[in-house]
Every structure is written in structure tokens, then in C-alpha cells.
Design a protein that fits this description.
elongated; 5-stranded antiparallel beta sheet; 454 residues; Creatine Amidinohydrolase, Chain A, domain 1; 2 domains; alpha+beta; Creatine Amidinohydrolase
Length: 454
């Protein structure tokens, strides 16, 4: 008996060791990550930025930030070895379309990585602001873009103090040339390069793998394990893999004897330490950060009752209904449409088909809740207001968290439930695709681990 017990322990440890190695094969060392990040930055500065500046009709873009109070756009421009800005960091990009050149300068004592060259010798010009003005006067730009915006929070990173000081130094003849760089800023944040999308596929694969392991018999013992324990297991798994998560994971339960609650339940009213039981429909919300990109994923699992080999038909049909709402949304993601336009058409079509949908899809990428067009919010199903990016169009080469739900009635449970789903999707020149598949089958607990994406 003892030898059998030790063999089971050995096999369990071996399984976890192999599982960890499989994850690690996908995840780079810190040094290799830094190399990839800087290579991607180089391509974004040299290839993408000139295109975006031309599209935005800006020939000069100035970003000003101070240590520990970084502009969210400037943060994405720092080299891998810079974890924060230093002192006051001022970046200046000048695009000369006629000569097809772009200057990348830092009004700082040192280069900002290998992409942005220092343009300030403090011994020659002690005043940092005055040196910035000299650079502006030498180039005489038609427009000077600054990061202030009412409609896009990520493009509003210039603080009041720096803005006022800049205007105090700026010669009056240039004052009328100062404009918001919000369109350029949003395009910089939302646009993904071809190489970034190759990496994104891997990122979503890792996210799916962690969810599949969390929603399995390796982590969950029905009647013993709680939802809170699964949440912390997911959080610890991310840390153990050398990754980060941009929000705390959540796990919740829908079952026969519970009433349907409001959307706020998912954010603040969810009870802790719910024991997971056979017959439960489990739902998680989970995302990771890796190589300066983010994922955001919601998937579902069913806990088998004794004797069951499949989830009940009504739950499988419910998932199909959720997939149908996804289809109504994604087929209406058409370049140039605003988020409100996409939302209305998708909701109308889903309702005409007899569904009860709610859509709250957001941009995903450099940030979890990133820049781009907003396609609904859970508490704004009639469309979002102007200060939430209402009039911003859908652009190509962008990533979205396809986040939504549909309410279905379960006569067997004598109640309504929500099928809540979220997957990373890419909108490119050829239309929409999921970055790494979507869930079309319920995960089963217990089960053999298998990949569920398609």
C-alpha cells in the first residue's frame, strides 16, 4: 500500500513538472523578453510611427512626463530596461514627409534606449525647456501635437504643470499650432504590427492553458475546493511562470438554487469561498500581461454529477447561444464604423433572432482596457457617451476583447442564467478573426485536459 501511495505522489509531481516545463517552453527569459520588446519598438518607431503621423496630419509630436507619473503612451515607448521615466523625460518626434524621414529625439541627458537619441547638452544649455524650444524653432513644424484629450483617457497623459510650463516657454507664434495628438496617440496604442500578432497568438494560448488547468480535477475537488481558492491558484500560477496579471482573476458559480443577479455581482457583490459542487456552471474572468501585451478571457466549465459524462443539453445549447451573439457582433465589425454603430446593429440582429444579448467589448493590447473604439458597456447598452470614444471608428490591425453575454432561461433550473464569454479578436484588412480560437465546448470537471479552441 505504501509503495502504491508513493508511486501516485511521484506520478503527480512528474505531471506537474512536465506541465510547468511545457509552459516555460513558451515563456522567454527576462533577457530574451527585453530583446524582443526592443526589436518590436524599433519596428514601431521606424515603420509604424511615420505612417501614423502622416495619417494624423501631424509633423511634430511631443510627449512630456515625469518619473512615477508617466504618460501612459510614453510608457509604451520606453526601452525594456527602463521601468520608469527618469526625472522629466521629454520625447520629440519630427516627421518630414517630403524627405521621408523621422527624427526621434529626447530632451534628456542620455539616450532613451537605442531608438531615441539625446538632444540636450546641459552644459551648453542648462534649461531643459529652453532646449526643447530650440529644437522646435529649428524644425518649424506646422502642427505640434500634445497628449491632451477629453474623449480618450490614454491620450490625456500630459499633466497640468508640464502643460502650463511648456506654454510659458513656447513663443507666441507657435501657440496656434499646438493641437491635441489624441488621434495619433490612440492609433499608436491600438495598432498592432505583424510580429506583435504572432506573439499575441502565443499570449492567448498561455491564457487558455492556465484556465484549462484551473478548471480541471488537478485544481478543483468538488465539495472541497472554493471559488476563492481557484482565483488564488490562477494568480499564483501566473507569478510562478514569471508573468503578471493586470487584474485579479474572478471565478463564480451559477447553479439551480441561485437567482440571477445584476452585472455588479461580477465586480463587487460576488460571495467569497463558495464551495464548488457537482452540477455547477463555473465562469472565470482572467488575463495576463507578457511582452507588453495583455489578454482578457472569460470561459465556462461544468462540474459533472455522478454518472454524467457530458454537460446537460440546456447548458451546451446555452453556450451555442453565446457563440451566436459573438457572431452577430464580429460580422458587424466593419472598418470605419463607430462602436455605437456596431453595437446597435449587432444587438438588433441578435434580438430579432430571439436572443437576450448584452455587449460590452473593449480594445485590448498595450493595456487591458486599451485605446480604440468602445463597443458598448455593461451599463450602457444604448451606446456610450462622447467622452467614452463614441465617435472613434474601427481601424484595421487592432485587437479587441470580444466581451458579451446572453441571458437564457433554464426550465430545468427554474431560472435564468447568463452565458458570459470573452475572447481576444483581431480586426485586420481582411476582416475579423479570433487571435487563438474561442470556446465552443464546455470544459468538464473532471476530464482529460484537451485544447478547446477552434
Amino acid at each position: 500500500m505504501k509503495s502504491t501511495h508513493f508511486i501516485k505522489i511521484f506520478l503527480t509531481l512528474l505531471f506537474f513538472s512536465l506541465s510547468y516545463q511545457l509552459f516555460c517552453q513558451q515563456i522567454l527569459s527576462e533577457e530574451d523578453r527585453a530583446q524582443v520588446i526592443d526589436e518590436i519598438l524599433n519596428e514601431r518607431f521606424d515603420v509604424l510611427l511615420p505612417e501614423l503621423m502622416d495619417q494624423s496630419d501631424l509633423d511634430m509630436w511631443i510627449l512630456i512626463s515625469r518619473e512615477y507619473n508617466e504618460d501612459p503612451i510614453l510608457r509604451t515607448m520606453l526601452p525594456a530596461t527602463w521601468l520608469n521615466a527618469r526625472r522629466r523625460t521629454i520625447l520629440l518626434f519630427y516627421r518630414d514627409k517630403a524627405s521621408n524621414t523621422i527624427e526621434k529625439l529626447a530632451v534628456a541627458r542620455y539616450n532613451v534606449g537605442k531608438n531615441i537619441s539625446s538632444a540636450w547638452d546641459k552644459e551648453k544649455e542648462p534649461d531643459q525647456w529652453q532646449r526643447l524650444i530650440q529644437l522646435i524653432e529649428e524644425r518649424n513644424p506646422k502642427k505640434i501635437g500634445l497628449n491632451f484629450s477629453k474623449d480618450h483617457n490614454i491620450a490625456d497623459g500630459l499633466d497640468k504643470t508640464d502643460y502650463e510650463e511648456f506654454l510659458q516657454y513656447l513663443p507666441k507664434k507657435y501657440a496656434s499650432r499646438v493641437v491635441s495628438a489624441e488621434q495619433l496617440g490612440v492609433r499608436w496604442i491600438e495598432t498592432r504590427t505583424e510580429r506583435e500578432m504572432v506573439i499575441y497568438n502565443q499570449l492567448v494560448s498561455i491564457t487558455h492553458d492556465i484556465i484549462e488547468e484551473a478548471f480541471s480535477e488537478k485544481v478543483i475537488t468538488p465539495g472541497i475546493t472554493t471559488t476563492t481558492e481557484v482565483e488564488w491558484w490562477m494568480r499564483q500560477k501566473v507569478t510562478d511562470l514569471g508573468l503578471k496579471t493586470w487584474f485579479h482573476p474572478t471565478v463564480d458559480v451559477q447553479r439551480t438554487n441561485e437567482e440571477l443577479v445584476g452585472h455588479l455581482y461580477s465586480f463587487s457583490g460576488r460571495p467569497d469561498q463558495m464551495v464548488i459542487l457537482p452540477g455547477d456552471l463555473l465562469h472565470c474572468d482572467f488575463g495576463i500581461t507578457y511582452l507588453r501585451l495583455n489578454t482578457d478571457c472569460q470561459e465556462l466549465a461544468y462540474v459533472l454529477k455522478p454518472g454524467e459524462k457530458e454537460a446537460p443539453d440546456f447548458l451546451r445549447e446555452g453556450l451555442k447561444a453565446g457563440n451566436t451573439v459573438q457572431d452577430y457582433l464580429t460580422k458587424n465589425m466593419i472598418k470605419g464604423r463607430t462602436g455605437n454603430q456596431i453595437l446597435k446593429i449587432a444587438l438588433d440582429q441578435a434580438k430579432e433572432a430571439g436572443l437576450k444579448p448584452a455587449i460590452y467589448t473593449h480594445p485590448l493590447g498595450s493595456y487591458g482596457h486599451s485605446a480604440g473604439t468602445t463597443i458598448g458597456m455593461w451599463d450602457s447598452q444604448g451606446g456610450v457617451m462622447k467622452d467614452d470614444g463614441e465617435n472613434y471608428p474601427l481601424n484595421a490591425n487592432t485587437v479587441y476583447a470580444i466581451e458579451l453575454n446572453t441571458t437564457i432561461n433554464i426550465p430545468e433550473w427554474n431560472r435564468d442564467i447568463r452565458i458570459m464569454l470573452e475572447e481576444a479578436g483581431f480586426y485586420g484588412e481582411e476582416g475579423f478573426r479570433y487571435v487563438n480560437g474561442r470556446q465552443t465546448e464546455l470544459m468538464l470537471i473532471p476530464r482529460e485536459i484537451k485544447h478547446l479552441g477552434n
